[in-house]
């Protein structure tokens, strides 16, 4: 990302945001390469934001065809059904994103297996990898392949279910600068992998940890065991999900109150994405990726949760939690 300066055209087009976060941050953004795996509604909002901000290149990977669910949450899918034939979600979204900012190189990765059985060198082409709607094993696999590279690749996993959303962040060994009243301060943060973060014993976590964290882990585990993709689980699965909750709580030696039935019921009733929440989560994800690329500003910790019913977001540092809090 280092080396090249902004062109005159880039400086003119991105003048307003250069005034906000500086020319160096814009230069880094304009030379960065982002991969998105899974064109969910939340990711569509994210892609819009970073394309308008002027990311260098954006590569989309999603071989699925258009579905009713995708149409309800992904605004990048054109309304004209006549263009759907033979095109994947990634291809349709690519066409829409190119129109937003011709200066950004938007492309589609083709020919890769849906189970992500490709080498880690594939990810070496990118500075940021974002996955959405991926099964638990896939998230673990992609995150681990990013961490095995010689360069640092920022990894984000995002999920949105109805009025709730979750972002997982792994910036590995991350150095950044944050503003203080008397100037700036250099900081460094060490991030755990997704596997390491979700392996922290529940009994050691503080009571204030969001109930969404536990509920998402239960549903995630249920989907892995029964072979479901995220979003395919519904309210009819509630009895089986509650049994899974009981098993996990017993294995973790914690009370079943750690995972309220009402929260699980909400997530299963509204398993689909809700566009207004997609816009919020996608906006936050866009800001975080820009911060990670530029190295400026306090980044999110391991997890971020948003619940529209409570009207707030919660940042959780799961791997470094203090049980006394």
From TrEMBL:
InterPro entries tied to this protein: ThiF/MoeB/HesA, ThiF_NAD_FAD-bd, Ubiquitin-activating_enz
Keyword Transferase set for record: no
Pathway(s) the chain acts in: Protein modification; protein sumoylation
Gene3D superfamilies: NAD(P)-binding Rossmann-like Domain
Example of a GO biological process term: protein sumoylation
Highest taxon in the source lineage: Eukaryota
Sample GO molecular function, one term: SUMO activating enzyme activity
GO CC term, one of those recorded: cytoplasm
One Pfam family hit: ThiF
THIF-type NAD/FAD binding fold domain sequence ranges: 14-312
Keywords: Acetylation, Ligase, Nucleus, Ubl conjugation pathway
Location relative to the cell: Nucleus
TM stretches of this protein: none
SUPFAM superfamilies: Activating enzymes of the ubiquitin-like proteins
Family: Belongs to the ubiquitin-activating E1 family.
Xref: PANTHER family: SUMO-ACTIVATING ENZYME SUBUNIT 1, UBIQUITIN-ACTIVATING ENZYME E1
Subunit: Heterodimer of SAE1A or SAE1B and SAE2. The complex binds SUMO proteins via SAE2.
Protein name: Ubiquitin-like 1-activating enzyme E1A
Taxonomic path: Eukaryota, Viridiplantae, Streptophyta, Embryophyta, Tracheophyta
């Amino acid at each position: 990302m280092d080396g090249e300066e902004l062109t005159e055209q880039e400086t003119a087009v991105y003048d307003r945001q250069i005034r906000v976060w500086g020319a160096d941050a814009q230069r880094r953004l304009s030379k960065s390469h982002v991969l998105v795996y899974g064109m969910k509604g939340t990711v569509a909002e994210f892609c819009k934001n970073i394309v308008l901000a002027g990311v260098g290149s954006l590569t989309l990977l999603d071989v699925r065809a258009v579905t009713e669910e995708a149409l309800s949450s992904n605004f990048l899918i054109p309304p004209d059904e006549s263009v759907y034939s033979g095109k994947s979600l990634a291809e349709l979204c690519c066409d829409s994103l190119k129109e937003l900012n011709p200066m950004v190189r938007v492309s589609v990765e083709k020919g890769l297996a849906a189970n992500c059985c490709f080498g880690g060198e594939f990810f070496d082409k990118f500075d940021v990898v974002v996955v959405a709607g991926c099964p638990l094993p896939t998230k673990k696999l992609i995150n681990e392949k990013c961490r095995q590279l010689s360069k640092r690749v920022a990894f984000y996993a995002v999920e949105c279910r109805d009025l709730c959303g979750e972002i997982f962040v792994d910036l590995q060994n991350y150095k950044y600068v944050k503003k203080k009243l008397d100037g700036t301060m250099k900081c460094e943060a060490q991030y755990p992998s997704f596997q390491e973060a979700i392996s922290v014993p529940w009994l050691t976590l503080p009571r204030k940890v969001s109930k969404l964290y536990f509920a998402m882990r239960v549903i995630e585990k249920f989907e892995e065991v029964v072979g479901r993709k995220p979003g395919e689980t519904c309210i009819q699965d509630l009895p089986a999900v509650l049994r899974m909750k009981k098993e996990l709580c017993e294995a973790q030696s914690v009370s079943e109150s750690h995972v309220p039935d009402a929260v699980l019921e909400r997530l299963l009733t509204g398993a689909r994405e809700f566009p207004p929440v997609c816009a919020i989560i996608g906006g936050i994800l866009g800001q975080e990726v820009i911060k990670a690329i530029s190295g400026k500003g306090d980044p999110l910790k391991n997890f971020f949760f948003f619940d529209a019913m409570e009207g707030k977001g919660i940042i959780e540092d799961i791997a470094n939690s203090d049980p006394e809090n």
